[in-house]
UniProtKB/TrEMBL annotation:
Residues 611-625 have a biased composition (Low complexity). Residues 652-662 have a biased composition (Polar residues). Residues 326-415, 611-670, 1025-1047 are annotated as: Disordered. This is HEAT repeat-containing protein 6. Residues 340-350 have a biased composition (Basic residues). It holds the Pfam family DUF4042. InterPro entries: ARM-like, ARM-type_fold, DUF4042, HEAT6. Residues 376-387 have a biased composition (Basic and acidic residues).
């Protein structure tokens, strides 16, 4: 019986169905099972490529320079190594160690003499081949050896070898520019080899291309490394800009010229992204003019006179139409049409010089458009929507997109034209990448002057201007359109202050058009254009960018100053996309809805939209109802349900079946039901997930922005649902969901109906404390922000609820919050800035009974010392001024021991503020520290006379130096600083005692006193501040007194000082000094009354 299976196995093998496996005895000593790969090799075993590399490397290491057959052996072995493909995409089993590659290249460079130029070329090709395909990161010794070899070859070898040598050099220096400092003078110095070969006068176009690529790789900065020296970066920048500005030589092939321009664009992008960059003179205008021209490279129908320089201007700068030459007309008429449905592979054959790491335009999109990593749309997939935006002038839409023929694409000329279109698309993409680097690297206010060259204005007839919108609506490549959308989003991001000027609610003047009206027209045109792009776009990745761009526009545009009607169509148009199959589209839609409901908190137009029932059909064109198309697009369909379900009740949460939802008329809708957007968000995060990607997208978007509808207006069960969902999502394993949920809790805690609920405050505090210990810095940053908001509500409850709330809140919970905030103050700056805010609020909130407990003594000291350390640190200025504000907030607590017999940390707190107020370069930090020094309400808080006069002298010195700055952006705060310092000095005078008079009298009697008097006069007369007066009042923490009130306060201070009596043995000196101070104040008061 045991022998029977053998014939069956043999028979099966003979029929080719089941392979024969050798019999293996099952035991602990048996060899582990190793599966076979599809090619028959055992997985994990060396591949053919790896074996060939090891064999050749061993033979090369065995060669010696004095061998008789050295040349023949080197030639054969180099050919064998070059014949292999080391790309892991094609050969996933290739596992060659980087140290083996480095060892091989170092050894071969010692064997190949520079006199054997053919071998030099093969070695350079091998260097590029191995480093580029295996993505080897070289150690310092290998880098030096290969740099010495290639730079020596450029000096010794003939010119015909230089293109291969430069190709190898470009691969060697990729991201290693700062480490090449010993060779930079020979490469980029005066008459350097790269400058010679990259010059526009260089006749050899291949040498020029490789030299530009090499320069770009030198300028490339890897994150975490130092940037290239500014001297060489400036030289490279000028070469790249000159290349972009130079016209195409008449005898150069168009494809090669595209490659040269792509290399220059990549180099310019690397220069601008490699660190801080300052444009000199007209450099910025020249760069923008060149990039705008290249943004439309190869676009059919575009024939304009491009300016060489763009200048800042509030009005659009239209390009002048140029008369096309007869040769160009003949050439354009012969352009073959392409098949609209044909997919472009985007590859084509590459020359050896094109294979460098930074020249692949298809891969560069991954760096700047992460959403495109998951796939790409068709190069021409725009559908029928393009007809919605036909311009009245010449059409910029390619003729090969409108008409197509399969037969016309088969001839060689059609193939060449297709390749040229591909290269031109990569070039436009590179120009937009470079423009994005400019937008991110230039200060916003500087860039506003150039907006008119890239943003649309209101249509006025005639040919439309060429802007980013033209590319978004007309470019045939979805990747190029996505890049243009990303540039537009970056320009809109943070532009709220600039766009705040826009207004068109009033009728325009006939004599002239104000700038505010022009800006409003631009906002409306952006809405129109992006809406058209939303309808026409078919690529999911580009569609995501369109919706993100709309979110940036909505978040920054001043809709309260614009005629209503812009947001309602957008709101209704986005409804079908909530159920889009692509998770990134769904997330971006929810982000856009978050921006819509929070704009100007919120607009009446948005409030009406929120109150509309889910199935309302009263809107125009039925945009608010669920159509058959919506049902087909639904990604949450279950058991016939095609619309987003209503929130799941707690008692029904375990049910997996749902009945179809019937569309109801407005009269049938329950008026007490929550808004449909809130229902949608709740349903997204409560119903069962279909897959991991759905949970990531829906959860993140739903918790991103709580609805601004007043929470008090919702039913209790809906409030409970919202709170329960958010508290549960903070324990999600997905850090994106956790981050958004923690942030949402920080918003919910500000609602009055929740912040006065002690149980909710306690639950929220415990949740935030757990998130503060998360491994993700993003989660910790949002948790610190939410903790800051929670402690803000504690201070608000002190005023509204009173002592009852303080007594109900657990002492142990407050202690944990104080300790957690202290630990967070040592984290990254974005965590630290809100952690110190929380510390200040908690020190203000603690009661006398808590501060005197032994359990609070050490945490109290640690918290104050953390603030002191942050004030004196080299952290970002925002962190430091938050720490100064936190110390001032702590000083408001009368139970805090700040007096003569206080703890040592009290002296440290005052010393740190005194140091910062007179020496910090940032004026806003000085303002916060001066305001903090003016907060203690009585003289005892300032300690002994030495500490008091130290505070006085620091404030006086700061007032004297309040205009000493070389930074204009700091100078604009000087008036606010003087305002705050003057208020602080008068506050010290108002609380001073007789023991302080000698020091005060000495200060006011001399030259210092005359300077103080001048500033105090301006303060009392409310002259100080000018345009920054409101800012100054805000910084002082509520000093919004009128001049009469300030003079009245000065009169009360004078009367109190007159009544002071001298104390102790030094009574005579104190009396004399008091008279000097009283005389100073009387003179000051008299001067103010006379003026």
């Amino acid at each position: 019986m045991a022998a029977q299976p053998a014939p069956s196995a043999a028979g099966s093998a003979s029929r080719g169905v089941v392979p024969v496996f050798p019999a293996v005895v099952l035991s602990a000593e048996a060899a582990p099972f190793t599966p076979l790969g599809p090619d028959g090799w055992r997985l994990g075993s060396p591949s053919d490529v790896e074996k060939q590399f090891s064999r050749c490397a061993a033979k090369l290491r065995a060669l010696r320079a004095d061998s008789g057959q050295l040349k023949e052996e080197l030639n054969l072995l180099l050919d064998q190594l070059l014949s292999e493909n080391y790309n892991k995409t094609l050969e996933p089993n290739v596992n060659i160690r980087p140290e083996d590659v480095c060892s091989l290249l170092k050894h071969v460079s010692c064997l190949v003499p520079l006199s054997q130029e053919h071998l030099v070329i093969k070695l350079c090709q091998l260097v590029h081949h191995l480093l580029n395909q295996l993505k080897v990161i070289m150690e310092e010794r290998t880098l030096d050896v290969l740099l010495d070899y290639t730079t020596s070859a450029l000096k010794v070898c003939s010119t015909w070898t230089h293109s291969d040598v430069l190709l190898a050099l470009s691969t060697i220096v990729y991201g290693n520019g700062p480490q090449c400092h010993k060779h930079l003078r020979d490469l980029l110095g005066e008459d350097g080899v790269l400058l010679r070969y990259s010059s526009p006068s260089q006749p050899n176009i291949e040498l020029r291309h490789v030299a530009l690529t090499c320069m770009a790789n030198i300028c490339l900065r890897i994150p975490g490394q130092a940037s290239l020296d500014d001297q060489y970066r400036s030289v490279s920048f000028r070469v790249f800009l000159k290349t972009l500005q130079s016209p195409k030589p008449p005898n150069i092939d168009e494809l090669f010229y595209c490659m040269v321009i792509q290399a220059a664009l990549k180099g310019l992008q690397c220069c601008l992204s490699g660190g801080k960059w300052k444009f000199v003179g007209e450099e910025l205008g020249s760069v923008l003019a060149a990039l705008k021209r290249l943004m439309f490279q190869g676009t059919p129908g575009v024939s304009v006179e491009w300016p060489t320089v763009l200048y800042p201007a509030p009005l659009p700068q239209y390009e002048g139409l140029s008369a096309p030459k007869p040769a160009e007309l003949a050439k354009s008429s012969e352009l073959p049409s392409d098949n609209k449905k044909r997919k472009s592979k985007g590859k084509g054959k590459k020359t050896s010089s094109e294979e460098s790491r930074v020249d692949d335009g298809e891969e560069d999109i991954r760096d700047t458009v992460p959403a495109l990593q998951k796939g790409g749309g068709r190069e021409g997939g725009r559908g029928e929507g393009e007809s919605l935006s036909k311009p009245s002038g010449p059409s910029f839409y390619p003729s090969w997109k409108r008409a197509s023929s399969d037969s016309e694409f088969s001839d060689p000329e059609g193939s060449a034209q297709s390749k040229l279109r591909l290269y031109n698309g990569r070039l436009r993409q590179g120009a937009l990448h470079c423009l994005l680097a400019v937008v991110k690297g230039v200060e916003k206010r500087t860039l506003y002057g150039y907006w008119s060259s890239f943003m649309p204005d209101s249509p006025i007839g005639g040919p439309p201007p060429l802007t980013l919108v033209t590319i978004i609506l007309k470019d045939p490549s979805p990747k190029v359109r996505a890049c243009a959308l990303q540039v537009l989003s970056s320009m809109l991001d943070g532009s709220r202050q600039f766009l705040a000027v826009a207004e068109d609610t009033a009728s325009p003047r006939k004599s002239y058009t104000p700038f505010s009206f022009l800006l409003a027209a631009a906002v409306r045109e952006l809405h129109r254009a992006l809406t058209l792009a939303l309808l026409a776009e078919t690529s999911p990745q580009t569609l995501t960018q369109v919706i993100k761009c709309l979110a940036y526009l909505v978040a920054n545009a001043p809709y309260h100053r614009l005629r209503p009607g812009l947001l309602s169509p957008l709101w209704k148009q986005m409804r079908p996309y909530v159920r889009n199959r692509d998770v990134n589209v769904r997330v971006s839609v929810l982000t856009l809805y978050g921006a819509l409901v929070t704009t100007q908190a919120p607009l009446p137009e948005v409030q009406l939209l929120l109150q509309q029932p889910e199935g309302s059909s009263s809107s125009s064109s039925g945009s608010g109802s669920f159509t058959q198309q919506d049902s087909a697009l639904s990604w949450r369909r279950r058991d016939g349900m095609s619309t987003p379900p209503t929130p799941v009740k707690p008692s029904l949460r375990t049910s997996r079946t749902h009945s179809p939802q019937v569309v109801r008329t407005p009269e049938e809708v329950d008026s007490s039901a929550p808004p449909w957007l809130l229902q949608l968000c709740l349903s997204l995060v409560t119903q069962p997930r279909e897959d991991q990607s759905d949970s990531e997208g829906a959860g993140t978007g739903a918790a991103l922005e709580p609805s601004p509808v007043r929470l008090e207006a919702l039913q209790d069960k809906t409030q409970l649902m919202c709170v329960t969902v958010l508290l549960g999502l903070t324990y999600s394993e997905n850090y994106l969901v956790k981050t958004a949920a923690v942030r949402a809790l920080g918003v919910y805690i500000l609602f009055p109906c929740l912040r006065e609920d002690v149980m909710f405050v306690a639950d929220t505090a415990n949740t935030i404390l757990a998130a503060l210990d998360d491994r993700s810095p993003n989660v910790r940053a949002k948790a610190a922000w939410s903790l800051g908001n929670l402690t803000d509500t504690l201070i608000a409850n002190m005023e509204t609820v009173g002592v009852d709330f303080q007594e109900e809140l657990s002492d142990m919970l407050l202690l944990k919050m104080l300790q957690a905030a202290t630990r967070a103050s040592a984290d990254k700056d974005r965590v630290k800035s809100n952690a110190v805010r929380a510390i200040g609020n908690l020190l203000h909130f603690l009661r006398q009974s808590q501060l005197t407990r032994s359990a609070f003594q050490r945490p109290l000291e640690d918290a104050v010392l953390a603030l002191v350390k942050t004030v004196q640190s080299e952290a970002t200025m925002k962190v430091r001024w938050n720490a100064c504000y936190a110390l001032g907030n702590a000083f408001r607590n009368p139970a805090l021991p700040l007096g003569k017999y206080s703890a040592p940390w009290s002296c440290d707190a005052f010393s740190s503020l005194c140091h910062v107020v007179s020496s910090c370069k940032n004026f806003k930090v000085r303002i916060k520290s001066a305001a903090a020094l003016a907060i203690p309400a009585n003289r005892g808080c300032y300690g002994d006379p030495e500490r008091f006069i130290c505070v006085w002298r620091s404030l006086a010195k700061a007032l004297e130096n309040s205009e000493d700055t070389n930074d204009f952006f700091e100078y604009r705060y000087s008036a606010s600083l003087r305002h705050t310092l003057s208020h602080a000095l008068l506050h010290l005078l108002s609380v001073s005692q007789s023991q302080d008079m000698p020091s005060l009298g000495a200060s006011l009697a001399g030259e210092e006193g005359r300077g103080i008097k001048e500033h105090l006069i301006r303060y009392l007369r409310a002259e100080e501040g000018g345009g920054e007066g409101a800012e100054g009042e805000k910084e002082t923490g509520g000093d919004s007194f009128t001049p009469q009130q300030r003079v009245g306060g000065l009169q009360r201070t004078l009367n109190r000082l007159k009544e002071l009596e001298a104390e102790g043995e030094g009574g005579g000196d104190e009396a004399t000094s008091k008279e000097m101070v009283v005389h100073f104040l009387e003179d000051l008061l008299k001067t103010c009354e006379e003026l």
